[in-house]
From TrEMBL, chain A:
Coiled coil: none annotated. This is Sugar ABC transporter substrate-binding protein. InterPro entries: Bact_solute-bd_prot1 (IPR050490), SBP (IPR006059). It holds the Pfam family SBP_bac_1. It comes from Paractinoplanes toevensis. The lineage of its organism: Bacteria, Bacillati, Actinomycetota, Actinomycetes, Micromonosporales.
Amino acid sequence: MHPITRSATPDQPTPAPHRTRRRLLAAALALPLILGAAACGDDSSDGGSSSDKVELSIFWWGADKRAELTDKALALYTTKHPNVTFKKTWQANQGYFDKLATLTAGGNAPDVFQIDDNFIAEYAQRGVTLDLTPYTSDGKLDVTKFPKSLKEYGEVDGKLAGVAMGENTQGLVYDKTLLDKFKLPAPTTGMSWEDFVAWAANVSKVAKVPGTQDPSAVYQALWVYLRQNGKDLYKDNKIAFDEADIAKWFTLWKNARAAGATPTPDVIHEGNDSSVSKQLVVTGKAGTSWVWVNQMPELKKNTKSELGVIAYPGDPSAQWARASMYFSVFRGSPHKDAAVDVVNFLANDPEAGKILGTDRGLPPNLDVRKDVSATVTDPSMKQTIQVQDELGTKFGPTSPSVPPKGHSKVKTELVRIAEEVTFGRSTPEAGATAFVTAAKAAIGQS
Amino acid sequence: MTMAQMPVRPTEPAPPVPAAHRRGRVARRRRREDIAGYVFLSPWLLGLLGITAIPMLISLYLSFTDYSPLIPVTESNWIGLDNYRRMFTADPQYWHAVRVTVTFALIAVPLKLAAALGVALLLNKAMRGISAFRGLFYLPSLLGGSVALAIVWRSMFNGDGAFNSFLSIFGIEGKAWVNDPTWALPTLMLLAIWQFGAPMVIFLAGLKQVPIELYEAASVDGASAWRKFAHITLPMLSPVIFFNLVLETIHGFQGFTSAFVLSNGTGGPVDTTLMYTLRLYNAGFVELNMGYASAMAWVFLLVVGTITVVLFSTGRFWVHYSDSEER
């Protein structure tokens, strides 16, 4: 592009610059390889002994409150183990898994990281997470006080890939202040889906606020609905529903929209697209939203209204105790023993449990949970515990196993296809066909 | 630009030396100077190699594998053309993303150029405070493809956003524009068009280069304003138009940030803002299928490259260089 061509004059038959250039090229090519090799060369040492200075990197997503509580709990660990310090990183949910994947690709995954059921199977099957099973048998990691289903929800292919840091279940949250203002009855656990839709349509009519967010794109609502119909979302790494089930689900909400029970499609999309703090029940754009019960404090923080929470409609025994999130240990961590000990501490230590409260869900250790329930002061945490304890008595005997690899893609496909139906660009039947195909492709089922 | 063109040669003549030694000395000195040249070049060169060239070559390799960021590259499997095959035959979302991107580029790029040229013509007048106006119009582009701007846009065109408040003055009830499948992409285009500052400044510079005598001569001949524009301004400006067209086309195809922010990274609602780069990002970072994402990136590179070449080859027919003696 520049008219500078002096170096190319033909009367200079000097091979030297080319050789230099080639050598430089080789050096430049080799440099990152060498650096890369140096970076991943060291993963055999183990700072397990209690006197070595260890700095553990730990990474989680969440809001300010979670950071504050986790900071405190980790500081407590450092007080008890002065040789262990932490390099803490945390951020909002959006972008968290992009960052985690990038760190992992660079061989720099944190020693301890938070993960949820969207990705735990993927990370476990790719060998990123440390298999914690051996630590449970030699007592370094105690999961004996966990509810059985909660421990099992961390197992992928028979290996313990993550330790549950909280238990939650589906929660239908409603704006109590709004309902009281118009003297409307609150929804109740166990009401049928049809009754709920009728209730919501009535709220829309009387209160002039759409009765409920349309949950047709909310995977955990569909999941409960499927289980109530004797199906499931997955079984043995395959989808466990058929087109008819999905068509029924989409039709239910098509009728609800026609009855005026939900907001307009653009607002429904906004609800589907928003973080916890912007759920429609919080922003006043709908009377109810479809969440997880441990999200109550975060929801409450963002609205002046009083909130109530019940189970999703239909038979509540289809709900289950889900691990809201886990801490996993990086298999390539140079400080595996120390990392496992920290995870053990966060899950089982009574003092740490009191600090962490129910921010990640109900404490996984049942003894700790009892302690926390007795002493918790935050009213919305209290409400979470009370509701979940009550629902816990209604759970059925079977709980689903952790979703397979590709689950997060299934979720986004459900949002896309359910919204196609919401916006009237597709019929419930065509949407059902499309979703079954897309879900199979996402989890690699032929 | 290739490395062969880099200016590394000194201009000063070598001092007189006996002829026998001269050759070897000169060669040695040249070599030394070559090395010095490369050393001075090295920041750029390392950047080019380390940040662009090597990763690109690696991504070409990865596009033939099932690489996921969660596993070491060495453990990924060579799967030949499978990624490419899947892209063209088995991924409806891929073609959807292509359609969205082409629609976006076809509409947003010409409109943006028209807006840039129009405003440049207005700002090419001699009047008081014109530089302040120029600055003002350039302001949106200073913020560039920034995330902050996209967030502002998102809240402006939301259901309870500023735009709807404005509409309500006229008794019009707006909708959540960014959340509506019909309006999400136009909203995105509007954001791109609004950021016309960079091509505008280039147009402005081009307009200043048009010899005033041409207009004077045309005026003497009684040409209307439109004829002056069509027969003097446009042809004289054609190299600048061409430059802006090429640049903005490439930009248009690469649009990512605003689409990502406006749709929370999903390309929604119902994939209506699923730009090619966004689909690529999701394939790599959400589905963790980096091999597939690499294949998408290479097809993208080839297609955008081809479009650029085609644009260049049409340039011959409509781009007029007034300094043609140099060509």
